[in-house]
Amino acid sequence: xxxxxxxxxxxxxxxxxxxxxxxxxxxxxxxxxxxxxxxxxxxxxxxxxxxxxxxxxxxxxxxxxxxxxxxxxxxxxxxxxxxxxxxxxxxxxxxxxxxxxxxxxxxxxxxxxxxxxxxxxxxxxxxxxxxxxxxxxxxxxxxxxxxxxxxxxxxxxxxxxxxxxxxxxxxxxxxxxxxxxxxxxxxxxxxxxxxxxxxxxxxxxxxxxxxxxxxxxxxxxxxxxxxxxx
Length: 230
Ligand SMILES: C[S@@+](CC[C@H](N)C(=O)[O-])C[C@H]1O[C@@H](n2cnc3c(N)ncnc32)[C@H](O)[C@@H]1O
Description:
Layout: H1 11-17, E1 22-25, H2 33-39, H3 46-50, E2 56-60, H4 66-74, E3 79-83, H5 87-100, E4 105-109, H6 115-118, E5 124-130, H7 137-140, H8 148-157, E6 158-168, H9 171-183, E7 187-192, H10 208-215, E8 221-226
Bound molecules: S-adenosylmethionine (SAM).
């Protein structure tokens, strides 16, 4: 086992201590969405979980969670779901939300492929994709989080008028994503190939990966894809 993969100290006990913030944990290695949705259907009741009817936004691949913590503190009238497949990684934002007493964030420690098992149809106002793993187009296109297979799922989860907000440093992946959005009938808004052209916009929350790429002088691409309804 490499250093990178080593579990954090007291990992299980620390996960257990955060379990009230964790709505779902690991549906194994299931990749087939239809099979997963049928086998593990456990839809989250947002009103029960958050105690209100505020809009709900989801971040897929939250990593260490700096983005979701900052956004949740700024937008207290929105409920946030943070999804991350790596349990060793999600422990960091789980503990941070606990430490900071942030009340409008809950976590899903599952693969994005399993989302339809947990999220009710047409219940989300926004989906954030921040620096999703680009994966090589050749051989892995269907696993990219903006492949049309995923976009069709997001269309089922988003409310009409809801939007996907994507940032990436990877130009090829960005252009692939734009083609996929168009093919699936999303309307594109606020598209930029250089978000930081005139410095960081005051509304933009810089993620951990974004900070790395800014320091290396790489341009950040961003787009919003609006779901227009069927
Ligand atoms: C490159 S990191 C970006 C992390 C963070 N969003 C940021 O901008 O700093 C991508 C994250 O997405 C997670 N991820 C990748 N594919 C996923 C999937 N299919 N389901 C859930 N999480 C996934 C990875 O484990 C990783 O933590």
